[in-house]
Design brief:
The chain is an all-alpha fold. The chain has 3 helices and no strands. It is flat, with a radius of gyration of 13 Å.
């Protein structure tokens, strides 16, 4: 797998923050407050753009 963000994205969204998580055996039907807190602290921009629950992300 390769995750690429083109330079033009950062020209349009200079504060863009991307993260990729790969895991096996994870049930994404539940909320994980500790993960959401980590994301909020690590990349504050996610607070205004993330879905209500991580399970909503395909």
């Amino acid at each position: 797998m390769r995750f690429v963000v083109k330079k033009e994205i950062f020209e349009e969204l200079p504060r863009a923050c991307f993260g990729v998580v790969m895991a096996k055996g994870i049930d994404n039907n539940n909320a994980y407050p500790e993960i959401e807190q980590f994301l909020d602290e690590t990349c504050p921009f996610t607070t205004s753009t993330k879905p209500d629950r991580i399970s909503h992300v395909p």
